[in-house]
Amino acid sequence: xxxxxxxxxxxxxxxxxxxxxxxxxxxxxxxxxxxxxxxxxxxxxxxxxxxxxxxxxxxxxxxxxxxxxxxxxxxxxxxxxxxxxxxxxxxxxxxxxxxxxxxxxxxxxxxxxxxxxxxxxxxxxxxxxxxxxxxxxxxxxxxxxxxxxxxxxxxxxxxxxxxxxxxxxxxxxxxxxxxxxxxxxxxxxxxxxxxxxxxxxxxxxxxxxxxxxxxxxxxxxxxxxxxxxxxxxxxxxxxxxxxxxxxxxxxxxxxxxxxxxxxxxxxxxxxxxxxxxxxxxxxxxxxxxxxxxxxxxxxxxxxxxxxxxxxxxxxxxxxxxxxxxxxxxxxxxxxxxxxxxxxxxxxxxxxxxxxxxxxxxxxxxxxxxxxxxxxxxxxxxxxxxxxxxxxxxxxxxxxxxxxxxxxxxxxxxxxxxxxxxxxxxxxxxxxxxxxxxxxxxxxxxxxxxxxxxxxxxxxxxxxxxxxxxxxxxxxxxxxxxxxxxxxxxxxxxxxxxxxxxxxxxxxxxxxxxxxxxxxxxxxxxxxxxxxxxxxxxxxxxx
Length: 542
Ligand code: ADP
What we know:
Elements: H1 12-22, E1 27-32, E2 35-41, H2 42-58, E3 66-70, H3 75-86, E4 90-93, H4 100-110, E5 114-117, H5 122-128, E6 137-140, E7 155-157, H6 158-163, E8 179-184, E9 194-198, H7 199-210, E10 222-225, H8 237-244, E11 247-250, H9 258-268, E12 272-275, H10 277-290, E13 299-302, H11 309-319, E14 322-328, E15 335-338, H12 350-357, E16 362-363, E17 368-372, E18 387-392, E19 416-424, E20 430-435, E21 440-442, E22 445-447, H13 449-457, E23 462-472, E24 476-485, H14 493-499, E25 512-515, H15 529-535
Parallel strand pairs: 1-11, 3-4, 3-5, 4-8, 5-6, 6-7, 10-11, 10-12, 12-13, 13-14, 24-25
Antiparallel strand pairs: 1-2, 8-9, 14-15, 15-16, 17-18, 18-19, 19-20, 21-22, 23-24
Helix pairs in contact: 1-8, 2-3, 7-8, 9-10
Adenosine-5'-diphosphate binds next to strand 14, strand 19 and strand 20.
């Protein structure tokens, strides 16, 4: 027997319509290439979104067509999120910091019909243009006054495109499983793979994001979206914020600039912010140098890479900010797990809380997880057994977009293999020990590079650290620690190695330390271990 409730489709346009009616005066503040302080309201945003939908119609784009964006976080990108998906097209967000050949591959593979490009990204598109045979035109996300000269034949100005359009538009209703957005994994191995989200997955994921034990968004909040909108839908924040009527602040190209972030936070009274650990390192280092504070912020969500305990502790002790670490990936929309204290954990000391915050957190309703051994058999949640982390749920990818070799990412039981290795404790707290390709295997036993990195960063003289496995004649592989140290604080190799005594199992201790000026980062701001392994390919332990 079926229930007798309405089968209203879960559509992204419904979030927009709701916010427009219920929070019309809530503000959206952006930094853009052409304006350091742009502000308007949800009412303005959605009126312009309807103008943009009319403009897209005139360009002749049809439902299901892909529209590429190469842009930072700002109000025009936000309008594209809603106009493109709301009209039934696919909003394909592209990371402009990927290698140029990857950007070309992604645009051609997705068969984007038009590209919407930030002013600052235009030089890249000019260069790639001859290889982008299928793209019919480029819209520069700026006004006439800032339009760059261009060699591209069909270049349009975003503001001019909107200016002549009506702000009346009826959002179409369609099946909630219709594709809404497309995002490629950065593809550190092989070509990038496309993850195709649906309206249903985006709306359910945004609902979950608002929950108090997840991102905890409310209408009282001012949310700073530092995580790029091309990095897994900005973690769903552009959907979750309008759902509850939170004020939004978007830093545009200034997202890695500690000083600019601090100024924005204080000017706009930001209460919640989300981003990868490197961003928070930049902000903390600016705060330390300048003596500035961020009193309005009460919560920072961090994910995308392991967050060192030292970041968590500094935020709490010095700035009264509570750090909530989450784990996820492009294929999981991305929310998978997040920090949570459960009553069953009993009273926790401050140190125990920091330890807990340094783990990847508990499952979010909507995502089931398990760890399995090499025979695909589930392992116990005892905090000791570690294995392949697998997930399933309504916002997890079931396959990749147009994958030529037909590679199925699901195991025989229909679970998605994340490529991460993890433990889960009896409270359901998940800890990533490594990405399976970063695991260090010493004498047949696994060493967690993440735990070693977190320990190294806890040393007061260390700015950033990476650990990679290098060949060893006796143990097959041993850990090599690569560090960037603070200029003003000389640290010796022996001192650094002694730091691990008593902090990790003795046989985990790195065998050697390499000091470098800077570590390479991927396009999403994570430490690029693939390049490090290349850089240290000829390295031999002393
Ligand atoms: P990319 O492959 O470009 O890094 P993703 O953002 O999809 O793209 O990366 C997902 C991966 O990032 C996860 O599989 C995991 O290895 C890592 N990751 C994400 N969040 C965390 C976290 N909190 N701690 C440790 N690793 C994380």
